[in-house]
Design a protein that fits this description.
Elements: E1 6-7, E2 15-18, E3 27-30, E4 33-36, E5 46-48, E6 57-60, E7 63-68, E8 77-78, E9 83-84, E10 112-117, E11 123-124, E12 128-133, H1 139-148, H2 152-155, E13 161-165, H3 178-191, E14 196-203, H4 211-217, E15 231-233, H5 234-237, H6 240-258, E16 264-267, E17 272-277, H7 288-301, E18 305-308, H8 318-322, H9 328-347, H10 358-362, H11 368-375, E19 384-388, E20 398-402, H12 408-417, E21 422-427, E22 440-444, H13 447-452, E23 459-460, H14 470-485, H15 491-494
Parallel strand pairs: 12-13, 12-14, 14-15, 17-18, 17-21, 18-20, 19-20, 21-22, 22-23
Antiparallel strand pairs: 1-2, 2-5, 3-4, 5-8, 6-7, 7-9, 10-11, 10-16
Protein name: Altronate dehydratase family protein
Domain SAF: 13-84
InterPro entries: GD_AH_C, GD_AH_second, SAF, SAF_UxaA/GarD, UxaA_altronate/galactarate_dh
């Protein structure tokens, strides 16, 4: 990065990005000469580099991010007051020919971590015992059972803890409908997850999401033994107190079995890294997201898997992902998911322009296309090998896309249910997200945030603004991913975050 207070990201761009807050009247040097700033420009915000007429497109990252709603002169602030989102067909190929798609090669295992090899061949990065609640009516019982085991690691040092995964649904669903199927897929995904050594299922007894049929449909078994997991029905056991006692007894029998697990040396190819962003700002697409993308590229080259998601936050950038699809069928699957979302939003009186959020806008992001173009940088540059449904099992190695909402807890819940055993979460405004049973690394897009929220941030990607190469920060991220996968605690784990963020996607009617 240059010493200039403004960044130019691409030759085609019409805007520059402020590295620091710049008062009105400041004169900045550009390739086209000195430009006095007409207004104060906030850190991460855009200033016009070229004059644009009303209705003309504005480019950032070499791509169109919106149309002018008024004439814009050099030195003026470009934001929501003079720029609007617009839906239009994208025909462009990736704009920067220097960022070519990296070819996949058969990797030799050269990076390793210490993980838990499970009987199905997958590898865990943590070793939890879980309580899976089928319905909100059993949430309180589940929490009280969990509370009984607060100090479990004292007696079972190889167990990371007992967690209660509760939610707000499970009944009031159309039996056999989309929401019922999705909830079962999520619960089964967590039951099978390599970070969960053993589990019990707790329900009320009369809910739509019945535990026993779910266990049969999804072949749930205890420690992959073929034996059904303990299922506790509050009604069947005679009420709250008796159900709590029965669940505590069941978990007490599981803990010694879970404690037998030991970490062994595993190849980085056993990692499935979920990527997500929340509270993005104007720097996210310059620092944290491309740095994570660099780590993703290296992980894929090592034979691992990385997953991009948040379909409502790829609008306006989906053409770049489709251009990377390894087959027409994969590109078509992504287009189908984008089309589904547009129809779904229209049905509910919304559109793609309902994003970005107030926090995003305060951080300098003006339109969904601008947010999306910065967001997809998390996915690196390697070929897109598969597109999967929400909470569907991720089976292909390489760069994968999962269809999820943009809302962080719902998105990551689907990614974990799909098998992700690590999460990297970028943020510019600040997020305190956690995702038990999977560790979540927080990547700050700017150094001010990293310092301000040091108890929550794991890696400072803002150093890119000071000249540290994106690739170097990407290597730091991958190093930390491997360390955390081996047992190092993330900031969110140290703060006890991650259970309340379990939030399966419910998109249909509540009856």
């Amino acid at each position: 990065m240059s010493s200039s207070p403004l960044l130019k990201l691409h030759p085609r761009d019409d805007v520059l990005i402020a590295k620091v807050r710049l008062p009105a009247g400041t004169v900045v040097e550009t390739e086209e000469g000195p430009v006095p700033l007409a207004q104060t420009i906030g850190a991460g915000h855009k200033v016009a580099y070229r004059a644009r007429a009303m209705g003309e497109p504005v480019h950032r990252y070499g791509q169109v991010i919106g149309l002018c709603t008024a004439p814009i002169h050099p030195g003026e602030h470009v934001h929501v007051h003079n720029l609007r989102a617009v839906a239009f067909p994208r025909g462009e190929r990736p704009a920067d020919p220097a960022r070519t798609i990296a070819a996949r090669a058969t990797p030799e295992p050269t990076r390793f971590f210490e993980g838990y090899l499970r009987p199905d061949g997958r590898v865990g990065t943590r070793n939890y015992v879980a309580i899976l609640s089928t319905v909100n009516c059993s949430a309180t019982v589940s929490h009280r059972v969990r509370d009984h085991f607060r100090d479990v690691s004292r007696d079972y040092p190889n167990v990371d803890g007992v967690i209660a995964l509760t939610h707000k649904s499970g009944c009031g669903l159309v039996s056999g409908g989309d929401d019922h199927a999705t909830l079962e897929r999520v619960l089964a995904g967590y039951a099978h997850h390599p970070n969960i050594a053993a589990y019990v299922v707790i329900g009320l007894g009369c809910e739509v999401a019945q535990a026993a049929p779910m266990a049969q449909r999804h072949r749930l078994s205890l420690l992959d033994s073929g034996r059904a997991p303990p299922i506790i029905g509050i009604q069947q056991h005679g009420g709250t107190r008796k159900a709590i006692t029965a669940a505590i007894e069941a978990i007490s029998q599981l803990l010694p079995l879970a404690n037998f697990a030991r970490r062994t040396t595993r190849s980085a190819s056993d990692l499935i890294l979920a990527t997500n962003c929340g509270g993005s700002d104007g720097y996210s697409g310059i620092t944290a997201n491309p740095a994570l993308g660099a780590a993703v590229d290296e992980l894929v080259r090592l034979g691992g898997t990385a997953v991009l998601s948040e379909t409502t936050e790829i609008f306006g950038a989906e053409h770049l992902l489709m251009a990377r699809a390894e087959s027409e069928a994969v590109a078509r699957k992504l287009q189908e998911r984008v089309d589904w979302w547009k129809a779904y939003l229209a049905l509910h009186g919304a559109d793609v322009g309902s994003n970005p959020s107030p926090g995003n806008m305060a951080g300098g992001i003006s339109t969904i296309a601008e947010k999306s173009l910065g967001g997809i940088a998390k996915g690196g540059t390697t070929p897109l090998v598969d597109v999967v449904e929400y909470a569907e099992r991720i089976t292909k190695k390489g760069f994968v896309y999962m269809d999820t909402p943009g809302y962080d807890p719902v998105s990551v819940t689907g990614l974990v249910a799909g098998g992700a055993n690590m999460v990297c979460f970028t943020t510019g405004r600040g997020s305190v997200f956690g995702s038990r049973p999977v560790p979540s690394l927080k990547l700050a897009s700017n150094s001010a945030l990293f310092q301000h929220m040091e108890d929550d941030m794991d890696i400072d990607c803002g150093v890119v603004l000071d000249g540290t190469p994106v690739e170097e920060v990407g290597r730091r991220i991958l190093d930390e991913v491997l360390a955390v996968a081996s047992g190092k605690k993330t900031k969110s784990e140290l703060a006890g975050m991650g259970e309340a963020e379990f939030a399966p996607w419910m998109r249909g009617p509540t009856l």
